[in-house]
Amino acid sequence: MADSNLVSIVCPRLNIHYWLALKQIPRLAIHKKLALVNTVGLSQLFLLPVSKLTVYKLSQKQQQAITSPDWSKIQVIIDLSLKCKSEIIGFDDEAYPVLLKEIYDPPLVLFVKGNKKLLVKQQIAIVGSRNSSVSGRENAFDFAYHLVQHNLVITSGLALGIDAAAHKGALNGQGGTIAVVATGLDSVYPARHKTLAKDIVTNNGLIISEFVPGTSPKAGHFPRRNRIISGLSLGVLIVEATIKSGSLITARCAMEQNREVFAIPSSIQNPQARGCHWLIKQGAKLVEEFADIVEEINIPIKSSLNLNRNNDKEGDTEKNQNQDLFNDPLLASVGYEITPVDIVISRSKLPTDVVLTRLTMLELRGLVSAVPGGYLRVN
């Protein structure tokens, strides 16, 4: 029989204790745990005698975890969650996201810190390489910034590179963002993102994990995190990824979960683009602007037209002034991938001093960006 001391330990949200007890059953797949709950009932499961459990072909340790859960250990988990100012959401909680319930192996509990109302809003995941290019990070930032203007929440993994840029773009656009992490919520990984994690929570965002407080980052945790990122979302945008990137694991999860997969193409010389190009070959939707995503998931596009006719002449004047620079042959010598100065000189066939002067003019106009190793053309 279940431990009769449970009543003296538990808080009013008794189901959380049961979901955590279910989570503690060793070496039993999540879908089998949920099947037991559907068959027997959550609380009733922990009242069953061993004689009733034999029919479910459970090991001795699994039976023991059901008949004699370690309620004191479970209470420690709850106390640790409270200590790091997080909340625990069980699978049957109304705050638990419906889309996530649809995946093959949804987490039984979610540890959350911040605005949990974001969980039930429409989300787009943006993920990509940690070793991203400047243009890749700019794309992630810009896509996130514009997508939140359409009331979409940006979900990512708080990793270096593309993930961080996506979170920052959403925050800059004053929209919602969710960071799904592969550690307990009492720590931040990578450590350099402590400020970003704090910014997410204080700006009405959310950080979530399926791992109990005190869990450190391990290689096997990240693929598990990735299935949650895609499971929460209507679709996943891959900004940059190598062929062996973890972002392709997220894309595969999305396909298995019947989610949309989007990918941004780039230069064939960019190794960080090869994963995106491979996905496009497999049927992922090629996107060039945020409207491509919005249209695919059938969300109305907000008009960004300037209706102030008084500014027409000023706009035309500025357009004419910029036209010469857009047609500058030197600009054509700078690629959308990092282009060294000597390559620009070789392509343009202009003297070095002239190239450097005109590159500075183009940079001031916002048409190119000086980066380590050379220059990058900016859209």
**Alpha-carbon distance between the termini?**
67 Å
Q: Into which percent range does the helicity of residues fall?
A: 40-55%
Radius of gyration: 25 Å
Low-confidence stretches: 1-12, 303-326
What is the fold named in CATH at topology level of the largest domain?
Rossmann fold
Counting structural domains, the number is 3
Element string (H = helix, E = strand):
HHHHHHHEHEEHEHEHEHEHEHEHHHHHEE
Describe this structure in words.
The protein has 379 residues and is an alpha/beta fold. It has helices at residues 6-9, 14-23, 30-40, 42-45, 50-53, 60-67, 71-83, 98-101, 134-147, 162-172, 194-202, 221-232, 246-256, 274-281, 290-296, 312-326, 329-332, 341-348, 352-364, and strands at 87-90, 109-114, 123-127, 153-156, 177-180, 206-209, 235-238, 260-263, 285-286, 368-371, 374-377. The radius of gyration is 25 Å and the shape is elongated.
Provide a quick synopsis of the model:
The protein is α/β, with parallel strands linked by helices and 379 residues long. It contains 19 helices and eleven strands.
Topology:
Blueprint: H1 6-9, H2 14-23, H3 30-40, H4 42-45, H5 50-53, H6 60-67, H7 71-83, E1 87-90, H8 98-101, E2 109-114, E3 123-127, H9 134-147, E4 153-156, H10 162-172, E5 177-180, H11 194-202, E6 206-209, H12 221-232, E7 235-238, H13 246-256, E8 260-263, H14 274-281, E9 285-286, H15 290-296, H16 312-326, H17 329-332, H18 341-348, H19 352-364, E10 368-371, E11 374-377
Helix pairs in contact: 9-10, 12-13
